[in-house]
Design brief:
By secondary structure, the protein is an alpha+beta fold. The protein has one domain. Helix content is 47%, strand content 18%.
Length: 104
């Protein structure tokens, strides 16, 4: 479909979807939160992988959606959250940040 491509040299390249593993505790928190339709769709497209007693959700989304999901999880990083929730948030944040540095 060449008619749908852009020939402008300064046009930004389209973002590609990247699959990141999201800890189950983070997923449970986000499913209860109010999300944008794009964020909700990304969670719905995720594939559940059982991990011992818990699970991980493999979420395919563009980097900007992962960044938005990370911003919704700020309450999990506070001192009122239990340690496992803080650890789960930190793990996902590290994965999103590693993706950001790999793009540079």
């Amino acid at each position: 479909m060449p008619e749908h491509t852009t020939n402008h040299p300064d046009a930004p390249a389209p973002e590609l979807a990247v699959t990141l593993d999201m800890p189950g505790k983070v997923t449970d928190f986000l499913r209860a939160a109010e999300l944008d339709p794009a964020e909700r769709a990304a969670l719905d497209q995720g594939v559940t992988v059982r991990r011992g007693q818990g699970y991980t959700l493999r979420v395919p989304a563009v980097h900007s959606i992962h960044r938005q999901l990370l911003s919704h999880r700020q309450p999990l990083g506070t001192s009122s959250a239990i340690p496992t929730q803080r650890k789960a948030r930190r793990e996902y944040a590290n994965r999103v940040n590693a993706l950001e540095t790999a793009e540079r």
